[in-house]
């Protein structure tokens, strides 16, 4: 396999994992940016709208006849509680103290998940709030250490098992130094978008 083919393969594999799970530190975005820069293209081009025939009044793209009355960013508070229970049960099984829920951290995690859905991105750095650690600090939450896990999945339980199956995410959930947790889970058209925030105070 030549060097270009190997690079493309790595970008595709890492890019695929980047879509569904993001640990606190993820090199996939850096690798993808580097690959695109080497190709001389570091932006994603917008799709070109096909020309429309003035005689044809039909829309270029299908429009739903019954739009969903709910907003795309519906916060699932019961699912957040379920996620916290699953994380704490796993910590107890591993001889660790359960994490305390911090209301301000819950709100921050909710806002991050809403922001990802409404602004159509999936990253530790928000175009609205900046890096997750800055977002947490700007809310007046003081910490000695902070971590973030992100996931997209069909449902909350699946998101939890995906996170537990990934070593960097599992390390955040089972970090003995973390003391508090905040979880924000928001419904999107594909399932759920999950933000887990952890701090040590």
TrEMBL record:
Superkingdom of this protein's organism: Bacteria
Span list, region Disordered: 43-72
Start-end of Pro residues biased regions: 61-70
UniProt cross-references to InterPro entries, sorted A to Z: CAP_dom, CAP_sf
Sequence ranges assigned to domain SCP in this UniProt record: 85-197
Coiled-coil stretches noted in the UniProt entry, renumbered to this chain: none
Protein name: SCP domain-containing protein
Organism: Koleobacter methoxysyntrophicus
